[in-house]
């Protein structure tokens, strides 16, 4: 879009409803229920047909989180009333998988624990992004980015192992049946394009397209947060690779790097297994 188009859209949205602004001092975050269902929330309307279209939207994940909160709250399975999505993630994913350094908020709002993030241009090279630019200290989370989580390479490796071999690596959190559903193609626009599953896609960086391989890219190119992650894995091969990047660069380039790393790790794992010395699951 041209800059004038963006300015016009911004003017059309002002002033924002109270639910979108949060508290005046910025110390508390608006709940999902208020954000989507409160008296001052903007109306959300579906624009795609399930199974017929694939439309990227952060609201999809926001509404999914709200559904999770309400379903668990009605069942009372967490032993607490009105559970929030952060608590659910810790109880049902992070803690069982041993992901002790993963959270949707930065503990104690300590920016010293963050990897430095950068912008990059051919003319100027790498430029440091000051923490206050991409980190909202009052809320413990990145600015202008929703649904993010902080993590480490070690925790991402634990997550990958659970995706590759859930029965032995997920502490009963995931199952083979659940992974079958997560990776079952839900939508494919064309046979020459990758199929979309539940947040996963067939790795499009491979030629020809390899249906054994799934990938997910977390973060956005040129995002305010400046952090990106690409995960590539294959349950059939027992191999997974994660690439963590601390620059707001092109997400397609990150996927390409992860795909090349995956091919190399797959080759070495196959050679090791052929010699009878390879493990069942390899995570790089």
Give a brief rundown of this model:
With 284 residues, the chain is α+β, with helices and mostly antiparallel strands. It is built from ten helices and nine strands.
Helix content: 25-40%
The number of strands is 9
Query: Secondary-structure element order, as H and E?
Result: HHHHHEEHEEHHHEEEEHE
Helix run count: 10
Strand order across the largest sheet: 5-6-7-8-9
The biggest beta sheet reads: 5 strands, mixed
Radius of gyration: 20 Å
Determine the mean pLDDT.
Answer: 75
Shape descriptor reads globular
Structural class: alpha+beta
Which stretches are poorly predicted, pLDDT < 50 over at least 5 residues?
22-27
Our measurement of the CA-to-CA distance between the termini, rounded to an integer number of angstroms, reads 38 Å
Taken as a percent bin, the fraction of beta residues is 5-15%
């Amino acid at each position: 879009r041209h800059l004038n188009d963006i300015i016009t859209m911004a003017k059309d949205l002002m002033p924002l409803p109270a639910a979108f602004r949060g508290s005046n001092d910025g110390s508390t975050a608006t709940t999902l229920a208020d954000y989507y269902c409160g008296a001052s929330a903007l109306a959300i309307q579906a624009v795609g047909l399930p199974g017929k279209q694939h439309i990227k939207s952060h609201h999809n994940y926001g509404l999914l989180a709200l559904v999770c909160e309400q379903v668990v709250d009605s069942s009372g399975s967490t032993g607490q009333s009105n559970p929030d999505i952060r608590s659910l993630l810790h109880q049902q994913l992070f803690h069982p998988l041993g992901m002790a350094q993963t959270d949707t908020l930065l503990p104690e709002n300590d920016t010293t624990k963050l990897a430095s993030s950068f912008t990059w241009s051919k003319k100027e090279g790498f430029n440091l992004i000051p923490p206050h630019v991409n980190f909202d200290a009052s809320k413990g989370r990145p600015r202008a980015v929703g649904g993010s989580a902080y993590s480490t390479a070690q925790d991402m490796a634990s997550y990958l192992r659970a995706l590759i071999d859930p029965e032995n690596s997920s502490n009963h959190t995931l199952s083979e049946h659940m992974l079958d559903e997560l990776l079952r193609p839900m939508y494919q626009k064309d046979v020459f394009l990758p199929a979309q599953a539940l947040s996963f896609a067939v790795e499009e960086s491979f030629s020809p397209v390899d249906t054994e391989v799934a990938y997910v890219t977390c973060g956005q190119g040129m995002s305010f947060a400046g952090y990106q992650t690409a995960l590539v894995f294959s349950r059939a091969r027992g191999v997974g690779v994660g690439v963590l990047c601390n620059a707001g660069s092109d997400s397609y380039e990150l996927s390409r790097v992860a795909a090349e790393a995956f091919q190399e790790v797959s080759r070495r794992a196959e050679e090791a297994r052929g010699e009878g010395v390879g493990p069942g699951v390899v995570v790089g």
